[in-house]
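Sorry to interrupt, but I need a hand with the structure work. Leave the record below and I will have a look:
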Amino acid sequence: MSTSNLQTFQEQVADLLLRHRSLLDVLSKHGQSEAAVNRAVTKAITECGCLELHAKRQPYETNMDVTQAKQSLESHIQGQLCENCNDVIRAELGKHLFYTSALCNLLDIQLDDVIKQESSKCSTLGIFNLS
């Protein structure tokens, strides 16, 4: 998403958020929207069945180089989202992004700055960013 699109979205959220303007309300809605994303993905597995999860121990060894690790580590996902599950998950992700943006608005943080900072950190730290 471009900077102008993120700014426009953040401004739109600021204009639309009326009922849940309290920081506590936004924090609880943010958590609720995150849970809804998790639930939608879970339902794609447990109810629809378009995705299957075959989790097992990852075959990671400390002497692996990055290329070997990328080739041997798995997502554990088999299958592909059906159109319905894709639509539901996109909608839930949208709500979650809405409340993330609302949180940024209340704390006077630009969502674009957060993304730029995280991208810079990823570029600098590379694969060590989240380890």
In short: The radius of gyration is 18 Å. Residues 23-48 form the longest helix (26 residues).
